[in-house]
Amino acid sequence: MSETTIAFIGGGNMARSLIGGLIADGHPPAALRVAEPDTDRREQMISDFGIQGFEDNATAARGADAVILAVKPHTMADVARDLGNQLRDAGSVVISIAAGVRTTDIADWLGGDVPVIRAMPNTPALVQTGATALFAMPMATADQRDLAETTMRAVGLVVWLPDEQQMDAVTALSGSGPAYFFMTMEVMQAAAERLGLTEETARLLTLETALGAARMALESAEDPATLRRRVTSPGGTTAAALEQLEHADLAAVYQRTLDAAAARAAELGDELGAQ
Ligand SMILES: NC(=O)c1ccc[n+]([C@@H]2O[C@H](COP(=O)([O-])OP(=O)(O)OC[C@H]3O[C@@H](n4cnc5c(N)ncnc54)[C@H](OP(=O)(O)O)[C@@H]3O)[C@@H](O)[C@H]2O)c1
Fold first, then answer.
1. Mean pLDDT on 34-45
2. Where is the Pyrroline-5-carboxylate reductase dimerisation domain (predicted)?
3. Can you list the domains of the chain with their CATH numbers?
4. Ligand 1, from 41, 71, 173, 182: best to mutate by most atoms within 8 Å of Cβ?
């Protein structure tokens, strides 16, 4: 990546992952800045990554090509209101990674006329295996979109959405999705322990099976339904197992699961926008 200057506002977990990913991708540390009010956390990032650190948001953002708002959603309105004039004058692109906060609300808080790109990453971004959806306001240029995409790709897969409303579905799928898989792992491990395996053996086999299945599905040209059929011999153990899952109507359970998450995402968006 070129010497594009990127300023992170908020130096928490997600900023740390993105900065680590960008440096691993070859972005020069001297062209990365972080504004973080917590002195220990700020000093730690400066010493870990060799980036520039600031206590003050405006100083960190001054003249940056991209400003990544990486504060908690409820802090976003105050942070954006404080930076609005400066970002408009500098022509910076603003990338928000805050869950639930809509681009139109951020643009309003900034005072308008600032291109805002919204990213919805997920927790596995912390281990560089994230899945991020991006949406850009129409006024964002192709270069600004490229910059947002390159930044988020540093922590995993990136997809673009044509319509911001789809962010609620993304939140329900990849945003909250890691928790669905964690819960599945929890209950599979517990069931295996009840079958007589030790906790450690059940845990290791559960996690490696989840990883292996995901990797096979990603690397295969076949869809998951085909892969499932291929490992299900008639009258075999997998067929006996899947019969139970079908009986429990897993499809309906997951439809209700994602519907509930998407509805809550829409409500949170309304609440955050009313700040
Ligand atoms: N973690 C994830 O997996 C994940 C996934 C999707 C989206 N996100 C989004 O990413 C954003 C950051 O999440 P995170 O997990 O990195 O949170 P976090 O660890 O709490 O990081 C936020 C950082 O911002 C600092 N901060 C607070 N007020 C500030 C201000 N006025 N100006 C500048 N910095 C300020 C906080 O410092 P103090 O602690 O001292 O207040 C903290 O270091 C959130 O909006 C979240 O919705 C995170």
1. 97
2. 164-268
3. 6-162 (3.40.50.720), 175-266 (1.10.3730.10)
4. 71
